[in-house]
């Protein structure tokens, strides 16, 4: 008998749960009870009192009447379990066939009927739910007490004599199970015992009051029980019967065991236990399975697994670990667009004009004239050092503005008319180059120049001519006076100059890093400064196979270089130059040989197509080697007349072959031979053999199964929920356990 109470303790509630057979004490009943209680302490006390009453059997009494063919039967020993006194109580029926138990516990009870000459019988009865079986009384001290309102239950149970004339019937049949799906012959379950159950008919044929009879079976050997033959599956059962017919059913046990079947996956993973993905994941399994009438959800789908497979060798891994030996290639400071021909340059042609930013990018180098200097009276000397190179020559031109003219000698004979002032520079070859002819206001006193006033300009800058050879070789500045009919006047210009343009006069050689550029001389009060912000060069490219972790059976799909520029720009490029200055895609110039990636022409050297200050990062993209795959045709004669490719595979270092094998261990078939030699190709550049998909069947073989699992889904099929037995008759009740419910999902 189930316990009446199970106390569930929570932080805010202590609840009493009354269990009677299958039905728990109704929650609404509990809530009604709780509404009568003032405190949690009252609730706990009530729970305790109800349990004590139940343990004492004060809540329920039970009467059973035993009959033989509807006639009351005296002197029957009736035992009921879970009586309060000793756990089991026995009462003998009186002349009316009644056995009365005054105190029983609420719950499921086992009742055993026995009498000499009769079949000992066991019934399991359910007393149902109790309602209005107590009341509460408030004590003098305010405590809540429970007063039982006892209820009663009763039922009628039959008893059958042993060997009485015409008192039995025979049930016979065969029991089978499908626990091997690889054949079509049903198997026999082992060590199965069947029992007769009359409970299904008793609730209507011999009704009780408030009682459900869950089972009614026989304890005597050979009566109402049968052992299934482990070899044939046959059984014979002798059962009590009535001439008018008696309703009954069979208790068929559930079975837990293993189902033999072939499957591709188990719970979504390859059935062969290997990591996914698998070309042939199928395996023969012994799958834990349940069978029986009460097992819900029989598995309808049987995995489709063909009986044989085409097995190709696995190619070696595609290769990994290749790196590159790279070094910055020396170059001149001037580089033409094709990256080959040295050149000189003049920043005038690159947009560095007065008022423009002082940073400029030319010939794969970013320069910044950080300061222009000041006070120059001649072109400064520009020196290029470091960076690994030599012989580069740079020059600077100047710019400034004329702020005044100082008269050194007034001269004589000037009449003040048509006097011209000319501002000029003199180059290193003493050649004078006139620059400005300002319309100056000149005054004369006594035939001599007295004052010279410069005109007012909207902008005071007077730029030195920079796009000529002489403009980068200024030795001095001067101003001259002409006209006015006089002679001998001399003036000194007031002119403050700074660096204007930069010119690369000789590109030099051997630069593989940023050089240092300095300015000296020229009379400057402060010297100009220029920084090389980014010096970009090409990089040599050579495979380095010493880092290979896996030999290269095939070439990488693509090799590119990622350029990370100092300004944050990123781009990729897969073109290269060779030593003849030909441009190509690098993958076109390499091959796989003996597990290494080498140049097709070992005499060739390569360099990156693009320029970068930092070493470009090689990006190697490789596809994995893939095992060839093929499906095959298996005809009804168990032969294999053809196979067809589903994947030609790649990465084979030797010509691939194929063998035909049973799909799973234990599957039948042998002897098929397939030749692939007529469809094998070789790529000397990538170093790989490949299957073209063609094949020749040399021998078809014999005995292959089209499908490993031959048995389709079979549902459970057993006796009807109730059937009638009549004295002297034989009833056939076959039991088919079917294919069962697997405990894991297979496909």
Mean pLDDT: 86
User: How much helical structure, as a percent, in the residues?
Assistant: under 10%
Amount of beta strand: 35-45%
Helix/sheet category:
mainly beta
| Cα Rg | 55 Å
Q: In angstroms, what separates the terminal alpha carbons?
A: 44 Å
Q: Based on Cα principal axes, name the global outline.
A: elongated
The largest pleated sheet is described as: 9 strands, antiparallel
Tell me the quaternary state. Answer: single chain
Overview of this structure, please?
- By secondary structure, the protein is mainly beta.
- Helix content is 4%, strand content 44%.
- It is built from three helices and 60 strands.
- Strands 27, 28, 29, 30, 31, 36, 38, 39 and 40 form a nine-stranded antiparallel sheet that branches. A five-stranded antiparallel sheet has the order 8-7-10-11-17.
- The longest helix is centred in the N-terminal third of the chain and has 16 residues, at 40-55.
Q: Which terms summarize this structure?
A:
4% helix; single chain; mainly beta; 747 residues
Quick overview of this protein structure:
This protein is mostly beta strands and 747 residues long.
Reconstruct the topology from this structure.
Elements: E1 8-9, E2 14-15, E3 19-20, E4 23-24, H1 27-35, H2 40-55, E5 60-68, E6 71-72, E7 77-83, E8 87-92, E9 98-104, E10 108-114, E11 121-126, E12 134-138, E13 144-148, E14 151-158, E15 168-176, E16 193-197, H3 199-205, E17 212-218, E18 225-227, E19 234-240, E20 246-251, E21 255-263, E22 265-266, E23 269-270, E24 283-291, E25 308-311, E26 323-325, E27 345-346, E28 359-362, E29 365-371, E30 381-385, E31 390-409, E32 420-427, E33 432-436, E34 441-445, E35 448-453, E36 462-463, E37 474-482, E38 490-509, E39 516-520, E40 529-535, E41 540-544, E42 558-564, E43 570-573, E44 575-578, E45 583-585, E46 590-593, E47 596-599, E48 606-608, E49 617-621, E50 629-633, E51 642-647, E52 659-662, E53 670-675, E54 680-683, E55 688-691, E56 696-702, E57 723-725, E58 730-732, E59 735-736, E60 741-742
Parallel strand pairs: 5-14, 15-58, 15-59
Antiparallel strand pairs: 1-2, 3-4, 5-6, 5-9, 7-8, 7-10, 10-11, 11-17, 12-13, 15-19, 16-18, 16-20, 20-57, 21-24, 22-23, 24-60, 25-52, 26-41, 27-38, 28-29, 29-40, 30-31, 30-39, 31-36, 31-38, 32-33, 32-37, 34-35, 39-40, 41-48, 42-43, 42-49, 44-45, 44-48, 46-47, 50-51, 53-56, 54-55
């Amino acid at each position: 008998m189930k316990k009446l109470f199970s106390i569930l303790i929570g932080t805010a509630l202590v609840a009493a749960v009354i269990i009677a057979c299958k039905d728990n004490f109704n929650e609404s009943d509990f809530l009604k009870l709780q509404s009568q209680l003032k405190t949690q302490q009252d609730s706990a006390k009530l729970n305790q009192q109800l349990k004590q009453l139940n343990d004492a059997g004060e809540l329920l009494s039970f009467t059973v009447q035993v009959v033989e063919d509807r006639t009351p039967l005296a002197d029957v020993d009736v035992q009921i379990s879970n009586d309060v006194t000793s756990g089991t109580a026995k009462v003998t029926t009186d002349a009316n066939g009644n056995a009365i138990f005054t105190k029983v516990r609420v719950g499921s009870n086992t009742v055993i009927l026995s009498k000499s000459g009769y079949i000992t019988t066991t019934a399991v009865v359910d007393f149902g739910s109790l309602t209005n079986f107590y009341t509460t009384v408030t004590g003098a001290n305010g405590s809540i007490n429970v007063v039982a309102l006892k209820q009663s239950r009763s039922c009628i149970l039959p008893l059958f004599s042993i060997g009485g004339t015409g008192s039995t019937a025979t049930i016979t049949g065969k029991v089978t199970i499908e626990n091997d799906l690889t054949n079509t012959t049903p198997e026999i379950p082992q060590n199965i015992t069947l029992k007769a159950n009359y409970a299904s008919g008793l609730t209507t044929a011999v009704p009780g009051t408030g009682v459900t009879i869950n089972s009614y079976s026989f304890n005597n050997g050979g009566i109402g029980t049968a052992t299934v033959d482990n070899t044939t599956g046959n059984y014979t059962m002798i059962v009590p019967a009535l001439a008018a017919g008696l309703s009954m059913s069979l208790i068929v046990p559930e079975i837990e065991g293993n189902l033999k079947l072939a499957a591709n996956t188990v719970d979504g993973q390859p059935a062969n236990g290997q990591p996914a993905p698998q070309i042939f994941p199928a395996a023969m399994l012994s799958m834990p399975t349940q069978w029986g009438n009460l097992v819900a959800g029989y598995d309808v789908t049987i995995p489709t697994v063909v009986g044989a497979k085409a097995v190709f060798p696995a190619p070696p891994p595609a290769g990994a670990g290749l790196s590159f030996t790279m070094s910055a290639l020396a170059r001149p400071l001037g580089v033409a667009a094709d990256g080959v021909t040295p050149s000189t340059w003049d920043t005038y042609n690159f947009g560095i004009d007065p008022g423009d930013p002082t940073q400029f990018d030319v010939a794969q180098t970013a320069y910044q004239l950080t300061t222009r200097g000041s006070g120059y009276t001649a072109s400064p000397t520009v020196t290029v050092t470091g960076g690994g190179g030599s012989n580069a020559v740079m020059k600077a031109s100047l710019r400034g503005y004329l702020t005044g003219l100082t008269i050194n000698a007034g001269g004589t004979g000037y009449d003040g008319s048509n006097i011209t002032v000319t501002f000029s520079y003199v180059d290193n070859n003493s050649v004078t180059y006139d620059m400005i002819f300002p319309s100056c206001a000149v005054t004369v006193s006594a035939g001599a120049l007295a004052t010279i006033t410069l005109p007012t300009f909207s902008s005071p800058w007077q730029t030195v001519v920079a796009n000529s050879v002489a403009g980068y070789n200024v030795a001095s500045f001067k101003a001259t006076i002409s006209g006015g009919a006089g002679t001998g006047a001399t003036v000194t210009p007031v002119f403050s100059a700074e660096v204007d343009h930069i010119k690369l006069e000789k590109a030099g050689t051997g630069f593989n890093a940023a050089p240092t550029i300095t300015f000296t001389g020229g009379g400057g009060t402060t010297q100009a400064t220029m920084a090389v912000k980014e010096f970009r060069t090409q990089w040599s490219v050579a495979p380095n196979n010493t880092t290979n972790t896996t030999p290269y059976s095939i070439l990488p799909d693509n090799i590119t270089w990622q350029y990370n520029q100092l300004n944050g720009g990123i781009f990729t490029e897969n073109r290269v130059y060779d030593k003849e200055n030909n441009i190509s895609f690098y993958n076109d110039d390499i091959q796989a040989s003996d597990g290494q990636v080498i140049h097709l022409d070992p005499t060739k050297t390569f360099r990156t197509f693009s320029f970068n200050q930092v070493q470009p990062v090689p990006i190697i993209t490789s596809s994995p080697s893939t095992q060839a795959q093929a499906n095959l045709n298996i005809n009804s004669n168990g032969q294999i007349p053809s196979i067809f490719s589903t994947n030609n595979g790649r990465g084979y270092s030797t010509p691939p072959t194929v063998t035909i094998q049973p799909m799973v261990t234990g599957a039948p078939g042998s002897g098929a031979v397939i030749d692939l030699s007529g469809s094998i190709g070789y790529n000397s550049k990538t170093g790989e053999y490949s299957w073209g998909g063609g094949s020749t069947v040399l021998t078809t073989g014999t005995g292959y199964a089209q499908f490993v699992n031959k048995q389709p889904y079979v549902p459970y099929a057993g006796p009807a929920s109730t059937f009638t037995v009549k004295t002297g008759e034989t009833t056939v009740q076959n039991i088919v356990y079917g294919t069962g419910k697997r405990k894991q999902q297979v496909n």
